[in-house]
């Protein structure tokens, strides 16, 4: 075996080993990850945790969006557990933020996948917006870590944003036909007036 071949095999094994760990890293994400809605629609998204192999006792998150496109109608923290020490967070529809929501359970969850929150949005404008998900912080600025349920170690989850596209309300085809009919009647009316003059 040549040194280049041996080196190539070693690099391939290293990449596969490191990549496999990333495939199963704990993550917190917006579900669905992409939504297409129409202006005026009301729709739900959930914040979910996955691949927490030892479960978790909870942690915190913040969410932001374009306030000219979306508005939160309601939200519920749905994390399983006692919620004794959790905090609802601060909702600001003018700024487009839900800051520092915290879910905590001293009992923890043994599940590797779980729901954290359910959020109902109203599409109030057209355009695209990111549902920017990040770790929450305490008033002093330190992060609200997501600790595992066995050793209370920080799991450093990956955060995955969501995207929402809000389309304008479509004009029905009948309205276009009606409009073209009115234009036709208007032009006939003008022809009659010019012929009579």
TrEMBL record:
InterPro entries cross-referenced by the UniProt entry: CBM2/CBM3_carb-bd_dom_sf, VPLPA-CTERM
Entry-linked Gene3D superfamilies: 2.60.40.680
Signal peptide: 1-25
GO MF entry, a single one: carbohydrate binding
Record bears the keyword tRNA processing: no
Keywords of this entry: Signal
Listed CDD domains: Type_II_cohesin
Protein's UniProt name: VPLPA-CTERM sorting domain-containing protein
Taxon lineage: Bacteria, Pseudomonadati, Pseudomonadota, Gammaproteobacteria, Cellvibrionales
């Amino acid at each position: 075996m040549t040194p280049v071949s041996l080196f190539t095999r070693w690099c391939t094994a290293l990449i596969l080993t490191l990549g496999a760990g990333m495939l199963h890293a704990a993550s917190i994400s917006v579900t669905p990850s992409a939504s297409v809605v129409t202006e005026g629609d009301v729709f739900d998204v959930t914040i979910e945790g996955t691949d927490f192999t030892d479960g978790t006792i909870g942690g915190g998150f913040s969410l932001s969006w374009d306030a000219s496109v979306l508005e939160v109608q309601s939200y519920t923290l749905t994390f399983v557990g006692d919620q004794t020490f959790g905090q609802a967070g601060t909702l600001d529809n003018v700024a487009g933020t839900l800051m520092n929501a915290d879910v905590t359970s001293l009992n923890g969850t043994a599940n590797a996948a779980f729901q954290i929150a359910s959020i109902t949005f109203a599409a109030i404008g057209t355009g695209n917006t990111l549902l920017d998900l990040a770790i929450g912080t305490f008033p002093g600025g330190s992060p609200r870590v997501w600790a595992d349920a066995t050793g209370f170690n920080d799991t450093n989850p990956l955060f995955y944003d969501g995207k929402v596209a809000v389309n304008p309300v479509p004009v029905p085809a009948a309205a276009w036909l009606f409009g073209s009919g009115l234009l036709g009647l208007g032009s006939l009316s003008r022809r009659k007036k010019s012929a009579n003059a």
